UniProtKB/TrEMBL annotation:
InterPro entries: HATPase_C_sf (IPR036890), HATPase_dom (IPR003594), Sensor_HK_TwoCompSys (IPR050482), Sig_transdc_His_kin_sub3_dim/P (IPR011712). SUPFAM superfamilies: ATPase domain of HSP90 chaperone/DNA topoisomerase II/histidine kinase (SSF55874). This is histidine kinase. Keywords: ATP-binding, Kinase, Membrane, Nucleotide-binding, Phosphoprotein, Transferase, Transmembrane, Transmembrane helix, Two-component regulatory system. PANTHER family: NITRATE/NITRITE SENSOR PROTEIN NARX-RELATED, NITRATE_NITRITE SENSOR PROTEIN NARQ. Residues 187-266 form the Histidine kinase/HSP90-like ATPase domain.
Length: 276
């Protein structure tokens, strides 16, 4: 039943009930029912109808209104995400593309000079930032499926999308569908997972990558494991590993734990909350 139909039912049922009662009373019950008794029975009948039928209709009306408000809020959020994605694409993404073209042109003109290596580092950074921005645009334009728990499923789907874009051969086992993440927590967690997978793709030379989770609403953890070459030394001190430092800072700012265990054949990054 639609929202409009429910409103009309709430308006018409008392009117029809009173009209039908008055007709029956005057046509058939006058010899048996006094005027005072009939007047007392009228509000009683209206009350009983209100308690039995109208209360259910009011519950349906509230449910329909809540669904409409949720749909309106979701539409507003999607429009805001789409607007932000367009701004990123029309501004930062295109500027990065132009910068990439210019650095490539400069690289050809400076080939063989002492500045060639420095320019290659700049080109590498520009390409990486361009990749980050394009992935962010793709995530902003992701539309969650309308299911029973859309936020949890949307987060899982976005993780799967990140894996598909970075390390497609990775195995995923997502068991946090019962955990409710705020919008900020989702953004930060996705950024941490993306950075971990990008590091695996660029540096690990792994043949097996796993992304799995465990825990509950109060104690959970996300594990990114690979069988690559590992990391020699403290990666937080490497000048070219700023992504790992940023990931650690993100986790600490959210009040999460960050752990990185690395050895040849078994490197694992763990981001979690509480003790799991």
């Amino acid at each position: 039943m639609s929202y409009k139909q429910i409103k009309w039912m709430i308006l018409l049922i008392p009117t029809i009930t009173v009209g039908l009662w008055e007709y029956i009373r005057h046509q058939f019950l006058m010899p048996y029912l006094s005027m005072d008794a009939g007047n007392w029975l009228t509000p009683v009948i209206v009350y009983l109808v209100s308690v039995t039928l109208l209360s259910r209709l009011f519950l349906m009306l509230e449910g329909a209104r809540a669904a409409l408000e949720q749909e309106r809020a979701s539409k507003t959020a999607l429009e805001a995400r789409d607007q932000l994605a367009r701004e990123l694409h029309d501004g930062i993404s295109q500027s990065l593309f132009l910068l990439s073209v210019k650095t490539d042109k400069a690289g050809r003109s400076l080939a063989g000079t002492s500045h060639e290596q420095d320019l290659r580092e700049i080109q590498k950074t520009v390409h990486e930032v361009n990749t980050y921005v394009r992935q962010a645009i793709a995530q902003l334009r992701y539309v969650p499926s309308p299911v029973a728990d859309p936020e949890a499923v949307a987060l899982q789907a976005q993780v799967e999308s990140i894996v598909s874009d970075t390390v497609p051969e990775a195995d995923i086992e997502w068991n946090l569908t019962e955990v409710s993440f705020s919008a900020k927590e989702q953004v930060e967690l996705l950024a941490c997972i993306r950075e971990a997978l990008l590091n695996v793709r660029k540096h690990a030379h792994a043949t097996k990558v796993e992304v799995y989770t465990k825990g509950n609403a109060s104690n959970w953890s996300v594990h990114i494991r690979d069988n690559g070459i590992g990391i020699q030394g403290d990666p937080m001190l490497f000048k070219d590993r700023y992504g790992l430092r940023i990931t650690k800072e993100r986790a600490e700012q959210m009040g999460w734990t960050f752990q990185l265990d690395s050895a040849s054949g078994n490197t694992q990054m763990i981001i979690g909350k509480g003790q799991t």
